[in-house]
User: What shape does this take?
Amino acid sequence: MTELLQQLVNGLSLGAVYALIALGYTMIYGVLRFINFAHADVFMVGGFVGLYLAPHVPGGGTVLGGLLVLFGAMIGCALLGMGIERLAYRPLRGAPTLNVLITAIGVSLFLQAGGQLVFGAAPRPFPAVFPTGTITFGPLEFSTNQLLVIAVAGGLIVALELLVYRTRMGAALRAVSQNPKAARLMGINNDVVIRWTFALGSALAGAGGVLYAVNYPSVDPLMGVMPGLKAFVAAIVGGIGSIPGAALGGLLLGMVETVVAGSPYSTYKDAIAFALLIVFLLFRPAGILGRARVEKV
Amino acid sequence: MSKPLLGLLLALGAAAGLSAFSDRIDPYHLDVLIGLGINIILAVSLNLISGHTGQFSLGHAGFMAVGAYAAAAVTLFLGPRLIPDAAPGGFQENALFLGALLSAGLAAALAGLLVGIPSLRLRGDYLALVTLGFGEIIRVLLQNFEPLGGALGLNGIPPYTTVFWVVASAALAIYVVGCLVRSTYGLGFMAVRDDEIASSAVGIDPARYKVVAFVIGAFFAGIAGGLFGHFKMTITPSGFDFTRSIEIVVMVILGGLGNTFGVILAAILLTLLPEFLRPVAEYRLVLYAVLLVALMLLRPRGLFNFRLGRRVSSS
Assistant: This one.
């Protein structure tokens, strides 16, 4: 029982990171209807921005210093996301989905290969930007990192929820994702909304990158590939286009994966996510919280 | 005799001719030629799935892996029992390799059937994800399957792949795919690609065409895998990862979806390019990526889209 609870806490901290990445996927899918494969690599860049910022930020190793590093990575990634949208995706507005998808794969490969050139291919140790220690709670043991990851991710998800449901920009975002044409007729500038969505989603991915790196603790140019794919699985499992769904899917996937990793079948943990994906796509393609879309001829 | 069949026979003759002189060809050139042939088979077979039938697949390396492992298993585990004392390069050995390649193709075709079934319900990017997931699952399963070497892979595969086998297989793949898509039956593939709803309205079953495309495409990818394994003499699960699938996708996109001739040209270009770019090998992937994005922005219908032969619809 104790072990299961311990695993659940571990799963929660992994799932929180998946949820952060999944949110970006789901938001971008909501407004542009395509899978932004490059999102996983924005996550990786977030980790590296954190790595380079860490020595220059005052109060390293404290909660405040850690939050500053996190904030810096979020800003860096937001700029990167907006740049990618402007250069690669905007010229393809209205092009067939396949072309946009391939462009996304191209951008993803570019960030990976470029990352290997700029940052070097070898994994680099990530400094402890948050205070380290362990807290014992009865028979359970948490590292402060895990708790911070869960708390920060939870806070960001709540902030996003408020942004999307309580602000004018959030209303515009929801309008564009429901019906881009009608939104434009209502005087919404779709390009601005899409740019803003990319900034927001990429910032969350950047935060996810730093939190993942803090937990892990190392960064490398290909570190985004697996968490990125899994976060996308989480977005689909939760129901793509649904913000609470992405958070739920991320947490679920993190838990399932941690439980499998703790079992004798631990070497299959990478396959579990994809098996889950295929099962969901076959039997409930709309995901847990998504609504089935009826296709009209 | 029909023109394509004549072409096939000529190619087979050329393959036999080449193999007769293969002793005199520089081994480096021979290696490049074999790699070229394998990539052509992969690109042409993926073109049937993605180009002609319009089903975007990101798991082609998975089919290749199934084929490579199946073929290696036949020659490594069955070979010594069936032909314990075969002369190197003799008839028995070639017959064994033919059997290995066929079982590679059949095993991969079976995998193609498994992947094709979800495609009955899914389309577009969802299907792309399932194929991607499939490729990753294959890799993880192979990594954990100790009888086939686990994460270390299989070593000591006999070097049966010769220029003849590669050129002959590539010619056969081009012939089969080319004739198939030109046939009356094959028009169904393009109908499914252009408009699923309209094609089912005129009595074409999109599901069946998609599955057939996956099975045939996977069959040839499996053969390419078998050739690859017996060429490199060692295979590991990580050699058939997502990046490998993407490489094949890039060939098809670069050549122009559904343009067999262009896809062959692209496969040749992308195989030779790294050979010429060896001094700047570390920039190869960046170049790939830039090429892909630039292509989608500037020439979304493929680099070699010269409107040869029939005009394709502009959708």
Summary: The longest helix of chain B spans residues 206-232.
